[in-house]
Amino acid sequence: MTEQVHSRELSIVRVFDAPRDLVFKAWTDPKMLAQWFGPQGFTNPIAEVDPRVGGKIHIVMRANDEIARAMGFRDAPMRGEFTEIDPPKKLVFINNAVDADDNVILSGLTTVSFEAQGSKTKMTFHTRASGTQPQVVFMLQGMEAGWMQSFDKMDAMFARKAA
């Protein structure tokens, strides 16, 4: 029996009111990453980043009580590895959503590019994700909303820094 592969590709372009170096750093500094990564209702008790080719990424998104009840689990871990880094212009990384036993549920390849526009930054985000497990369909359906909420949180983080 052949497993069905579910996949989705997503591109988002966003302009942040922050300089390119800072927007790039938001992806590579663990303290900054922990502040914005993941949709509304999630925190990141673990955010580890080694921003170099071959360097690892490990993030655990923790859902609030309401979301955890709806999903049936609290923690959503992600592990990955950087495959290309060109500071402050581009990041490419493999990102895998894993279960509690570290088995890959959803595998992705993400490219993020950063273009200075005066004091602002145009960020182009592209990801391609796929998996075979049943929960992958739900994860892929929420992918765009999740990333958009993450980038809203990043925007808010920059606004706090500017205030």
Report on the structure:
There is one protein chain. The chain is an alpha+beta fold. The chain contains 5 helices and 7 strands; from the N terminus they run E-H-H-E-E-H-E-E-E-E-H-H. It has a 7-stranded antiparallel sheet with strand order 1-7-6-5-4-3-2. Helix 1 packs across helix 2 (30-36).
Q: What's the pLDDT, averaged over the residues?
A: 93
**What profile does the largest beta sheet have?**
7 strands, antiparallel
| Shape call | globular
What structural category arises from helix and sheet content?
A: alpha+beta
The CATH class, by name, is Alpha Beta
Beta-strand segment tally: 7
Q: State Rg.
A: 16 Å
DSSP strand content: over 45%
CATH architecture: 2-Layer Sandwich
What is the count of distinct domains? 1
Give the neighbour order of strands across the main sheet: 1-7-6-5-4-3-2
Low-confidence stretches: none
Distance between the termini: 57 Å
Task: Briefly say what this structure is.
The protein has 163 residues and is an alpha+beta fold. The protein is 31% helix and 45% strand. Strand 2 and strand 3 (56-63) form a beta hairpin.
List descriptors.
163 residues, single chain, globular, Alpha-D-Glucose-1,6-Bisphosphate, Chain A, domain 4, 31% helix, alpha+beta
SSE layout and pairings?
Elements lengths: L5 E11 L3 H9 L1 H7 L5 E8 L6 E8 L1 H7 L3 E12 L3 E9 L5 E14 L2 E12 L3 H7 L1 H20 L1
Antiparallel strand pairs: 1-7, 2-3, 3-4, 4-5, 5-6, 6-7
Helix pairs in contact: 1-2
